[in-house]
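Weekly structure sync, notes
Attendees: PL (lead), two postdocs, one rotation student
Agenda item 3: pending single-chain targets
PL asked that the sequence for the first pending target be pasted directly into the notes so everyone works from the same version. It is reproduced below exactly as submitted, 332 residues in total.
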Amino acid sequence: MDIINRLLEHPEPSIRFKVQVGVLGKSPEALPDLREEIRASPLVGALLSNRDSEGRIEPAHDVYAKWQGAHWVMAALADIGYPAGDETLWPVRDQLLETWLRPTYFAEFECRSKAAAYRHAGVPVMQGRHRRCASQQSNALWSIMKLGLMNDQCHELAERLLHWQWPDGGWNCDKNPDACHSSFMESILPLRALDLYATAFDSKAALAATDRAAEIFLKRQLYLGERSGDVIKREFTKLHYPLYWHYDFLHGLKVMAETGRIADHRCTGPLDLLEEKRLADGGWPAEARYYKARAEIEHGNDYVDWGGTSKRKMNPWVTADALMVLETAGRL
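Predicted structure, written out during the meeting:
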């Protein structure tokens, strides 16, 4: 309990919120004061610091600007427990919907080569598979739903994800015609978003899609080759926060916990690995990162310092997520 108590006294209210909800089982609705503290926090102030007169995140024309565009700001707010239903975020939500529901995402064309895939506007279809970065529409859908900003247009995001799903159950944007397996990076976020959507709207189609998508990860124990048993990518075994569109095994475990699949025996190995990475003080480190903590608008910058990396120092964001996973798995 020492590490839990330490996090419950953390100066960042979002860390306390994650522990209250993910580890101690409190309902988010039962923590209105804490969520208001999150809204007023310096961290949220930094994330929302670059809004124009209409309430949009700059650059308004590029929601995907890494990592300061509206797409990433909304994903961060959704993950840290920002209060749901904030109408002042409608302009930011609309930025995402205007971008990810453009007519080009409803147009598709058959092609046979990587070069041909870039010659037309729309979604290329190669070998019967839609080559689309579904992490974009799915991250938008998940963020909007978690933040209580759903409108009728959001159903179109779910429809696109279902339409683009590959025969093996996942998604991939690889323009190589020979690519026939789904991508971990492009499949974990659609799984997460469609599970939330299936629960909220009792969608049998979305639920079936999540069952198929989950198998992509479970049959590979979240980070191992299905046939070889070797680590698919070394970066998958490192701990990060935030991941943006990337993947690691803790994110895989987190989604399995959120979607009710953490008890599957194929999660045992990744859970063991997570426990092995625990530090002597009871926390977990961030072993690598994808951002630079600088307020200047520049590719790769984030408005927030998410705790940095260290081999010996606990990262509170990684630790809060790791504790949630182990609690859900019955390992605390």
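Discussion points:
- The chain is about 45% helix and 5% strand.
- The beta strands are 108-110, 123-126, 129-130, 292-293, 301-302.
Action: rotation student to compare against the earlier draft before next sync.
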